[in-house]
Design a protein that fits this description.
Elements (H helix, E strand, L loop, with lengths): L4 E6 L9 E5 L13 E6 L4 H6 L2 H37 L9 H11 L2 E6 L1 H9 L6 H9 L8 H7 L1 E8 L10 H4 L6 H20 L4 E3 L3 H10 L5 E8 L8 H9 L2 E5 L27 H11 L2 E3 L5 H8 L7 E2 L16 H10 L2 E4 L3 H4 L9 H15 L4 E3 L19 H10 L4 H28 L17
Parallel strand pairs: 4-5, 5-7, 6-7, 7-8, 8-9, 10-11, 11-12
Antiparallel strand pairs: 1-3, 2-3
Helix pairs in contact: 3-16, 3-17, 4-8, 10-11, 12-13, 15-16
């Protein structure tokens, strides 16, 4: 709209000037010619078309000028078209926001996906050093305020930004008899079962006693609820059992442990058992799985929804299980054999089987498993080397973290305790790992595996697959 020019007159003459239209001030009376009132007039321009196009004297020269200008303008456009188009695109092209720093990217990642450690040994430490008395001040005070012996307490867990932990329920292997047939008898494992029950109870009491810091989870949905609904302030807590010697040769025990929240069982510790060979043993007994009892037990894991953990097992056991299991497996705390040739680590050919299976290798931080230095020392960079190596071999969908905190007196420089976890995330980002891939390793892969284990278990149960029953000797019984 063309801006109007305003003029103000005092003692307006009787004949208003040409082109001026009277507009009365709101406080004036149009019929009153009193000199105390001001009449305001607005000049309205004479219409352009009426003045020029309606007069032949102007019309023909104007048309000629238009054609002349159009010709010049067309030539100008043809020469400038490419440049102008490029400039226009540059002007209107959306500009990316400033790049985030490594620290900002780390914070964003760990607020969007739970950082998960699949192997922390707090239960055995609390049982061994505090004699199961977790309500005593010598445990509760340092655990709550900081300074608890070991590598874990609540302040350090808060700094770690961990969103979830699989707490390891560990008991040592029973002593092996010289007669191996005696080593696998049920009574050999009674103490192991007893201690396992105590540690399950201990860890569940810790979670219950600190409800603002922990939340127990039996399913992936419950796990995610604990993390997301608390805004990451609570650690989703799950249980894992570290060896089949802890079930006392009883598939029934697996089901009972499942009911109280155990979601993975390691098939062996540093010993052979009735079902499989371990990695660190004087000699193999089955050369992998027990061919008679092993396959049925693996099938029961799949049917039940118990995650199979292949850390601690022999390479032959790894291959046997991966040829049988229809559910993805995990290595809860193992690293790369190619980088560090330790029997507890995962060979390259097995990594390929893990990829095919859809499983995940959770890298162990313990120096012996991530370096060949020979002096018992390792660094954060050594751990990152194993993570990146496995990812480059089989993809970022198949690697994660299983520290073994509180399971080893010495940890790598830069990862001395759980509070240093964000430094590992930053190291991966510094190496050029994409944020989405870091999210997978941080926790996305474990949740994907667990959800698939749940899905397959539901499918097998709907199809009518029955549970594996214990073998019980015939006994005399009279009423």
């Amino acid at each position: 709209m063309e801006k109007q020019q305003q003029y103000e007159y005092v003692n307006t003459p009787a004949g208003a000037p040409t082109g001026l239209v009277e507009r009365h001030h709101p406080n004036t009376n149009s019929s009153n010619n009193n000199n105390n009132y001001h009449d305001i007039y607005t000049r309205t321009p004479e219409p352009f078309l009426q003045k020029y196009l309606g007069n032949p004297k102007y019309l023909l020269p104007l048309i000629g000028a238009i054609f002349l200008l159009a010709g010049h303008f067309n030539g100008f456009l043809s020469k400038r078209a490419d440049v102008d188009l490029t400039n226009a695109i540059e002007v209107f092209k959306p500009h990316s926001p400033p790049a985030l720093t490594i620290d900002e990217r780390t914070d964003r990642i760990l607020s969007s996906v739970p950082l998960i450690d699949t192997h922390i040994d707090l239960p055995i430490l609390a049982r061994a050093l505090y004699q199961n008395h977790i309500n005593a001040p010598n445990f509760t005070v340092p655990f709550k305020t900081g300074g608890l012996y070991g590598q874990i307490d609540i302040p350090r867990l808060k700094t770690s930004k961990l969103g979830g932990v699989f707490w390891s329920v560990f008991t040592p292997c029973p002593a092996e008899s010289k007669d191996l047939s005696e080593s696998f008898k049920n009574e050999v494992y009674y103490e192991s079962i007893h201690d396992t029950i105590q540690q399950i109870d201990l860890m569940k009491r810790i979670v219950r006693n600190f409800p603002n810091d922990f939340g127990f989870a039996k399913t992936v949905d419950e796990f995610e609820d604990v993390f997301y609904k608390s805004g990451g302030s609570k650690i989703a807590s799950v249980l894992g059992i570290e060896g089949l010697h802890q079930i006392g040769n009883s598939p029934a025990a697996i089901r009972l442990f499942y009911e109280v929240g155990v979601r993975y069982i390691t098939l062996t510790h540093n010993c052979n058992n009735l079902y499989a060979d371990g990695a660190i043993v004087p000699a193999p007994h089955w050369n992998g799985l027990n061919p008679k009892l092993g396959p049925g037990l693996i099938r029961e894991f799949n049917r039940l929804g118990m995650i199979i953990d292949l850390s601690h097992v022999s390479a032959a056991t790894m291959r046997d299980v991966l040829s049988i299991s229809v559910s993805p497996i995990i290595f809860s705390h193992s690293s790369s054999f190619s980088l560090t040739p330790h029997p507890r680590n995962v060979p390259d050919d097995v990594l390929q089987l893990v990829k095919k299976n859809g499983g995940v290798v959770q890298v162990n931080f313990v120096p012996d498993f991530v370096t060949q230095s020979g002096d018992g020392k390792a660094s954060l960079e050594d751990v990152a080397d194993h993570v990146v190596y496995i990812a480059e071999k089989v993809g970022w969908e198949h690697v994660g973290f299983g520290s073994d905190y509180d399971g080893s007196a010495v940890m790598p420089d830069g990862l001395e305790d759980v509070s240093k976890y964000p430094q590992l995330i930053k190291e991966l980002l510094r190496r050029g790992v994409k944020d989405e891939d870091v999210k997978k390793a941080a926790g996305g892969n474990v949740l994907r595996v667990w959800r698939e284990v749940e899905r397959i278990a539901e499918k097998l149960q709907k199809e009518g697959e029955k549970e594996l029953e214990d073998e019980v000797e015939k006994m005399k019984f009279e009423l």
